[in-house]
Amino acid sequence: MSPAPTGPRVSNAARFAARPLSEGGTPTHVWLSAQQHLPLLDLTECREIVVVAAHPDDETLGFGAAAAMLADMDVHVQVVSASDGGASHGDLSRLERHRLERVRRAELHRAVNALGLPDPISLGLPDGQLSDREHRVADLLTDILAARPAGTWCAATWRGDGHPDHEAVGRAAAIAVARTGAKLLEYPVWMWHWARPDDDAVPWRCAYRVPTTGDALDRKRIAAQQFRTQHEDRDPNLGPVLPPAVLRRLVSVGEVVFR
Predict the structure, then answer these.
(1) Which of 21, 45, 60, 138 could form an SS bridge with 175, CB 3.0 to 4.6 Å?
(2) What distance in Å separates the CA atoms of residue 233 and residue 83, rounded to the nearest whole number?
(3) Which domains does the chain have, with CATH numbers?
(4) What share of the chain is helix, strand, coil (3-state, %, to 5)?
């Protein structure tokens, strides 16, 4: 597994920004049909894995079923969240943002426990500003991976996912993997919304389908429900961060990684 093939030369942030979540995005059935030709990821090769998220819930929505299955195989799965997600609700006061971050950390703990994983590590970096702290993320991930056994996997948000924080975490993970000799996987989250199966911005030649089980998918759905701040209305004038149709797609579309 090499980090080189999956790193886009150009960010897909403009693609994501041009397709609001309210527009629905690419339907789940289109993606499920397109995944059938992808090779399966062999999870039995993994002995330990660090799953890196830009925000609390990325790990669940993008890699939750895989993480649950690995835990069932007695693989140590360590979730690392780069930020505490304090920018998800827009312009908040410092106190309101602190409260939201505290709630989102608690949601993350409940979600990973629902997946059967140990408590997560929260790096506490500012949500929405991870691109400015990419080298700091890389240094912290390097320390975490260097303390793991040789051959440890690192699954991180894809460098082409469209969200600037997701892309920054993916780039940082690639740097940390190159420094430590870990094995990189990148999982998409927002790609399922803005891209399509024939999209040449997606590195399909490096894509693998995760062979998920019904039990793992059920646990992923339960874990996703722990993030109430993301799928409940923020106030009477604002809908949820994750509209219902978007959330349904993220827990039903299956899981794919690039490696």
Answers:
(1) 138
(2) 22
(3) 13-18+46-149+157-188+197-258 (3.40.50.10320)
(4) 45, 15, 40
For residues 15 and 194, the answer to whether their CB atoms sit within 8 Å is yes
Query: With 0-12 CB in 10 A as exposed, 13-18 as middle and 19+ as buried, what is 257?
Result: buried
CB contact at 8 A, 172 and 159: no
- Could you tell me if 22 and 242 are in contact, meaning their C-beta atoms sit under 8 angstroms apart? no
pLDDT in tens, 114-154: 999 999 999 999 988 999 999 999 999 999 999 999 999 99
Contact status, residue 8 vs residue 201, Cβ threshold 8 Å: yes
Q: Which residues in the chain come in under a pLDDT of 50?
A: 1-6
pLDDT of res. 1: 41
Place of tokens 């722990």: 226
pTM score > 0.85 for this model? Answer: yes
Q: Which amino acid is at 115?
A: L
Q: Where would I find the H helices in 50-93?
A: 58-72
Model pLDDT for residues 24-55, shown as the tens digit of each residue: 899 999 999 999 999 999 999 999 999 999 99
CB atoms within 10 A of CB 231: 17
Q: Nearest CA to 34 among 250, 196, 202, 201? A: 196
Cα three-residue angle 239-243-248, rounded to 5 degrees: 155
Q: How far is CA 97 from the centre of its chain?
A: 22
Q: In the numeric block, which tokens belong to residue 189?
A: 């989250």
Q: Could you count the other beta carbons within 10 Å of the beta carbon of residue 117? A: 23
What pLDDT is stored for residue 141 in this prediction?
98
